[in-house]
Request: fold
Amino acid sequence: MNIIQNNARFITLEGVDGAGKSTHLNWLAERLRSQGKQVLLTREPGGTPLGEALREMLLHQAMHLETEALLMFAARREHLDKVILPALAQGTWVVSDRFTDASFAYQGGGRGLDEARLQILEQWVQKDLQPDLTLLFDVPLEISRQRLAQNTSLDRFELEKQDFFQRVKQAYLKRAAQFPQRIRVIDSGRTIEEIQVELENIISSL
Ligand code: TYD
Reply:
């Protein structure tokens, strides 16, 4: 639900590591810009100087799973306050590489943190703000694992085992089933061109 009274939209991209979301992120931002929209491209964890410092720790330092969840939401609080909400208020569209669905998928599904705790943090940090649209890039795990295997500098999440990613993927799909109006599952086992046609249709209906 967009609580801001202008046409700016908040779009988030999600998916298991290696599902192909990064390929479509820049294309999507450029496509929206070519339609005359002001677009801010950002990411989580990160998006602010403090958030980027937290990202560095989150991606490379071992920690308790609750610490991990709290830091994800701490970075998000800052991101909303300093970047996302001011941009939307000015009429700028915001495209974020990951947002709260990733916490439900990774900290909830992947690590097994109680969903009720995540809901409390979500309510605390976001109140009623939700993305207007979430694109969930979904591929068979064999494909995302193959893509990751080509990457030489893997972070703490990317180094997790197959069953972790299986749980992350299931948790994402559960979110998509819970919020079908907001979350669109994109079959990203197809060609880039095929996916772009689908994305074009989706954004034109916003
Ligand atoms: P990612 O988008 O994969 O960055 P890159 O493609 O540059 O490696 O994001 C970094 C990792 O952070 C990713 O593995 C998922 C994880 N993550 C969470 O576990 N919880 C969260 O709430 C967010 C936003 C990200």
Observations:
- The mean pLDDT is 95.
- The two ends are 12 Å apart (CA to CA).
- The pocket of thymidine-5'-diphosphate is lined by residues 17, 22, 44-45, 72, 97-98, 102-103, 106-107, 155, 157-158 (CB under 6 Å).
- The longest helix spans residues 65-89.
